[in-house]
């Protein structure tokens, strides 16, 4: 039943990707933080139901998402002219691609598990 929390996370992710395509980078960041918060909430609500390899995948995904969020803050600072690190948006984009790929893999493993 708690897997239903992944539906709002997917909707928030879709809105976040739409916001960045429109050029609203600050809204993108807020929506991505909300997405990660919903996923963390899902994992924290029933940790005993997770097997070791599922927990490891989820923690790897959350670590990747956290790193991507931190890179996103640096990229936003560069976009707003508060930083001189011009490589930040490329690093953030690459980390985001890795995180999305890892999220797809984690969800596939999660939904194909035997209960």
In short:
By secondary structure, this protein is mostly helical. It has helices spanning 6-22, 25-45, 52-79, 88-111.
Provide an overview of this structure.
The protein is mainly α and 115 residues long. It is 78% helix and 0% strand. It has 4 helices and no strands. Helix 2 runs antiparallel to helix 3 (52-79) and helix 3 runs antiparallel to helix 4. The chain is elongated, with a radius of gyration of 15 Å. The two termini are 13 Å apart.
Please give the count of helices: 4
Radius of gyration: 15 Å
DSSP E strands, number: 0
What distance separates the N and C termini? 13 Å
Strand fraction equals under 5%
Query: Helix coverage percent of residues?
Result: over 70%
Element string (H = helix, E = strand): HHHH
Major sheet description: none
Query: Outline, from the CA principal axes?
Result: elongated
Poorly predicted spans: none
SSE layout:
Layout: H1 6-22, H2 25-45, H3 52-79, H4 88-111
Helix pairs in contact: 1-2, 2-3, 3-4
Question: What keywords describe this structure?
Answer:
115 residues, mainly alpha, 4 helices, transmembrane helix, membrane, transmembrane, DUF1453 domain-containing protein
């Amino acid at each position: 039943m708690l897997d239903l929390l992944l539906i709002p996370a997917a909707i928030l992710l879709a809105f976040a990707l739409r916001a960045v395509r429109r050029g609203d980078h600050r809204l993108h960041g807020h929506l991505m933080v909300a997405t990660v918060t919903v996923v963390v909430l899902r994992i924290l609500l029933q940790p005993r139901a997770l097997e070791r390899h599922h927990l490891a995948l989820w923690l790897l995904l959350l670590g990747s998402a956290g790193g991507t969020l931190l890179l996103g803050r640096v990229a936003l600072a560069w976009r707003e002219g508060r930083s001189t690190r011009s490589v930040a948006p490329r690093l953030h984009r690459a980390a985001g691609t890795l995180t999305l790929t890892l999220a797809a893999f984690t969800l596939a493993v999660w939904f194909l598990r035997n209960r």
